[in-house]
Design a protein that fits this description.
The chain is α/β, with parallel strands linked by helices and about 270 residues long. It contains 9 helices and 7 strands; from the N terminus they run ααβαβαββαβααβααβ. It has a domain of about 180 residues: Vaccinia Virus protein VP39 (Rossmann fold).
């Protein structure tokens, strides 16, 4: 399950240097998640990248998807990752030494490429962190040529499921995941892309499942502390839920998931 700390107003530009390693580890874990891999494979198939095309990866992180796009574009193509955090860009550049992918400093709401210069734009798990995601989508439309394609993949924290536990306490914890900038991003993608003038070609989704034999304690404790802090649950209720989850993990019976949605669309020619 993706764990980019929902409810914290996550902004990668302002990450302290000593927090970069944990973030890289979290992003690597997300890359390995079967649900993420399946949704990416669906989006890549729908985009049908051709050799020689110009590709832009908005919010490229460690560069894993930028490298995949570079491979699809071939030796005559261009694949550029846009990343606001310099430490992550360094990681991406180091990992991409044998790839044609390259990386630029830039913000999703002000992409550093000319109008109509791209054939394909990829944007994954970025809009959930933006208070004005429409500005980023408008930028994607600006940089795409007529007929250019876009794939936008994002989490919808309103779909968070957690079992077992008292339903009221579980609702309080999963509700704490809704305090981020744009927690319902996944369900809003179709409407936002349509409003920006894109034609929607396909839609997809995947549930990102946490291991049923363990508890994602960093995320659970973060949500639990937030719920106690706001008075949504008592410390006793929180601790009882923790015990229920720990017991379920011993029996291989934990369920924790959140759903990620994807939209593939094109700019009319």
């Amino acid at each position: 399950m993706a764990q980019t700390q929902p409810g914290t107003g996550f902004q990668k530009r302002h990450i302290d240097p000593d927090r970069v390693s944990p973030l890289v580890a979290a992003l690597d874990s997300q890359d390995a998640n079967p649900g993420v891999q399946r949704l990416r494979a669906w989006a890549e198939e729908a985009l049908a990248v051709r050799s020689g095309e110009r590709l832009l990866d908005v919010g490229s992180g460690t560069g894993s998807q930028t490298r995949a796009l570079a491979a699809a574009a071939g030796p005559d193509g261009v694949a550029i990752g846009i990343e606001v955090n310099p430490s992550l860009r360094t990681v991406a550049e180091e990992r991409s030494a044998d790839s044609r992918a390259r990386f630029l400093d830039g913000d999703a709401e002000a992409l550093p490429v000319p109008d109509g210069s791209m054939d394909v734009v990829w944007c994954e798990r970025v809009l959930q962190h933006l208070h004005e995601p429409g500005r980023a989508i408008a930028e994607m439309a600006r940089v795409l040529r007529p007929g250019g394609r876009v794939a936008v993949l994002d989490t919808d924290w309103g779909t968070t499921l957690l079992h077992p536990g008292d339903p009221a306490v579980v609702r309080a914890l999963t509700g704490a995941a809704l305090n981020g900038a744009n927690p319902y991003s996944g369900r809003r993608l179709v409407g936002q892309l349509s409003a920006a003038g894109f034609v929607v070609d396909d839609r997809g989704s995947q549930a990102l499942l946490q291991d049923h034999r363990s508890v994602a304690w960093p995320l659970i404790r973060m949500l639990g502390e937030a719920a106690v802090r706001t008075g949504a649950v008592t410390e006793e209720q929180r601790d009882t839920l923790y015990a229920d989850l720990a017991e379920a993990a011993e029996q291989g019976a934990v369920h924790m998931s959140v759903t990620m949605f994807g939209v593939v669309a094109h700019r009319p020619g």
